[in-house]
Design a protein that fits this description.
single chain; about 90 residues; alpha+beta; 5-stranded mixed beta sheet; 5 strands
Length: about 90
């Protein structure tokens, strides 16, 4: 399996609507670790690590959940995993 790091910045109506908590509830079905946080510019940033296929499936689940209509744009970046996460948490 190829572990990767996925960073997604979501923009749209993504703050103050339970976005981070919904994503945290979705993560239960996936073998990923990471964090989600609000950014000062109104976006939400998701950083997760895991098997690339698992990350892609998780990213798709976020878009297909009830959050999809709230998202106007996504910025996606892939990188090498750092192994810094022990679970999944809402921060910031």
């Amino acid at each position: 399996m190829s572990r990767s790091r996925l960073n997604v910045k979501y923009s749209g109506s993504v703050q103050g609507v339970g976005f981070r908590y919904t994503v945290k509830s979705l993560v239960v079905g996936y073998e990923v670790t990471g964090v989600i946080r609000n950014l000062a510019d109104g976006r939400v940033e998701l950083t997760v690590e895991g098997d690339r296929e698992e990350l892609e499936a998780f990213q798709k689940a976020v878009l297909e959940s009830g959050l999809g209509p709230l998202i106007r744009n996504t910025e996606v970046a892939w990188a090498e995993p750092r192994g810094e996460f022990k679970g999944f948490a809402i921060v910031g």
